[in-house]
Design a protein that fits this description.
Layout (H helix, E strand, L loop, with lengths): L11 H14 L3 H6 L7 E7 L5 E7 L7 H10 L7 H4 L5 H16 L6 E5 L4 H5 L15 E5 L5 H9 L6 E4 L4 E4 L4 E4 L9 H10 L4
Parallel strand pairs: 1-3, 5-7
Antiparallel strand pairs: 1-2, 3-4, 4-6, 5-6
Helix pairs in contact: 1-3
The protein binds zinc ion (ZN).
Length: 212
């Protein structure tokens, strides 16, 4: 039987702390300015699709270590909302959070300063099983993936922003969103009706299609 290897659940104290951080974070002009590149402070600006949850919080303030109030708020926003918090609120891979931040920086350098809108973050096994076309061993189940879109730009442009990152990671292109995970470098097309893709890429995708 397949066994999920998620990170340990947070202690209740952490849970309450993160909830408070997310609640009071708010979105200020200063937070938006902080979402542009900085040598030490890394601010991630996220919104959860279909909710009013929005945060712009630092997960690193010294350029070296995790800043837990912000990190916990990000994990809270990316929780599995279909199950109880004790199951759905887990530690998201910091490499995944850094990857999301890098994508946001790539967009900011192009003048796009908007939140990444998360449609799916962590998924419990039961939520993943109920998710259409989801891979059984999806990186979402390990807290290593996010599905997202950004208002005002195409998923193709968001895909390109993900692809432009130097670090490894999996990138999936879908009509409605882009999947980004912190596993090995690979890519795939989830919705096959994507005429914007080059024929050369289309030839590759036959070997690369993985639902995730
Ligand atoms: Zn995904």
């Amino acid at each position: 039987m397949w066994v999920m290897r998620t990170q340990p659940l947070m202690r209740r104290r952490d849970f309450l702390f993160a909830f408070t951080a997310a609640t009071v974070a708010g979105i200020s002009p200063a937070a938006v300015r902080a979402a542009v590149p900085s040598s030490t402070q890394r601010v991630l600006w996220l919104r959860r699709a279909g909710t009013s949850d929005e945060i712009a919080v630092p997960f690193c303030i010294d350029g070296r270590t995790v800043y837990y109030p912000g990190y916990n708020a990000i994990c809270w926003l990316m929780r599995d909302r279909h199950v109880a918090a004790a199951e759905g609120y887990v530690r998201i891979d910091i490499v995944e959070i850094e990857a999301l931040w890098e994508v946001q920086q790539a967009l900011a350098l192009q003048g796009v300063r908007r939140p990444l809108i998360i449609t799916s973050g962590f998924r419990s096994v039961q939520t993943n099983l109920a998710t259409e076309n989801a891979a059984r061993n999806s990186m979402h189940c390990y807290g290593k993936a996010a599905d997202m879109y950004v208002d005002g730009i195409s998923t193709r442009d968001l895909f390109d922003a993900c692809w432009s990152r130097a670090v490894s990671g999996g990138i999936g292109y879908y009509d409605s969103h882009v999947h980004l995970d912190s596993a090995s470098r690979r890519w795939w097309v989830g919705d096959l009706a994507v005429p914007v893709f080059d024929p050369a890429l289309a030839n590759i995708r036959g070997d690369s299609v993985v639902n995730a």
